[in-house]
Amino acid sequence: MDPEDGREKARVNLADDPSNGAMVQMDLHLLPREILLEILSRLPITSLIHFKTTSHAGYDLITDPRLPPMFRNQGCSRRVRKMDPPQHSEVNNLVGSCKGLLCLSFRIIGGSSVSHSLLIYNPFVGDAVRVPPANRFLNQLEVFGFGFHPRTGQFKVVRIVWYEKIMAVVDPALDVEEVDDESMVQVFTVGKTEWRNQGAPPPQLTDEIGPPEALVEGSLHWVTDVGMDGDGSIFGIISFELADEVFEEIPHPPCPQLVSREYSLSVLNGCLSAAGFVDAVHFDIWVMKKYDVKESWVKQFSFDPCFRRGWPNFFTVICALKNGEILLKKEDSSLVSYDPVENRFKTLQMSGLPNLFQALPFLPSLFSAKATMNLQL
């Protein structure tokens, strides 16, 4: 074989940005593998996925286990992309997002209760793993959380389930039973095969809560009613630490007007954030600069959203953008960015966005769901 022919086959054109046609030419056989991986880690993920399909050499490089931790999380375009998870027809809920992996739930209706099937999915790599089904109970209501703890290096799914337990049959002829309300916390460590029971949730986590709203420092967080004062309920923060699998009450912001009503949680620049209306006009965003330290709460933003209509807390904070703006989701399922420097709002127009949707922060990655979880579909 002509050496030049072999060299040509090892040369790959990789689009830096497929939308504008800019190209980077890589002569694979001339560069050490470590340098090739470093180059690839700096490119947009859309280019890497394209590169994966160009040749056997490209596939070999993209699937190198050393590449995902090096990936720089280059952003993608603002186009709305539709991605269909395998083997399921309709996603019921986005449970969570972590390290480029999504945990999705699919509703299963049967018998006297509703249960859910869970899938962990990387929409860019395209692979997924199923979470084994958890126990089903009488008239159950369940919520899920998904996260990763950096100390253990483990992904975990947390399930809180409320259900009815038959205590005694009072009258078999009339089908009358004595039942009691029960609750349970179950944890699934991804890569294992079974759910583990971790006792009952704390009394503050009732069946009125929703899924956890923020993953910070390896802990999932909920806002819930934690007590009373002279003016009514006090809303606080309950966390579930994924390494030791324990619940804890986290100090809430020192803002009586905020915590006297239910507020929302998010993650801003890696810190736990709490946000909500403190009166009929002002919307405040507090940030906990040092995790689990009450004195580190600071009010970082306070503004009057001039577009506001109706009941307070009608929009939530999604994340901080690279340009310093804050991404918000309105109750009518539109996205708005707030520029704190100019004190200005801008409605984001995104082609292909559905009328109703959930929104959560997501950083694309090359982590393979199968490889990371050590599970098979």
Automatic annotation (TrEMBL):
<dbReference type="InterPro" id="IPR036047">
    <property type="entry name" value="F-box-like_dom_sf"/>
</dbReference>
<feature type="domain" description="F-box">
    <location>
        <begin position="25"/>
        <end position="74"/>
    </location>
</feature>
<dbReference type="InterPro" id="IPR013187">
    <property type="entry name" value="F-box-assoc_dom_typ3"/>
</dbReference>
<protein>
    <recommendedName>
        <fullName>F-box domain-containing protein</fullName>
    </recommendedName>
</protein>
<dbReference type="Pfam" id="PF08268">
    <property type="entry name" value="FBA_3"/>
</dbReference>
<dbReference type="Pfam" id="PF00646">
    <property type="entry name" value="F-box"/>
</dbReference>
<dbReference type="InterPro" id="IPR017451">
    <property type="entry name" value="F-box-assoc_interact_dom"/>
</dbReference>
<dbReference type="InterPro" id="IPR001810">
    <property type="entry name" value="F-box_dom"/>
</dbReference>
<dbReference type="InterPro" id="IPR050796">
    <property type="entry name" value="SCF_F-box_component"/>
</dbReference>
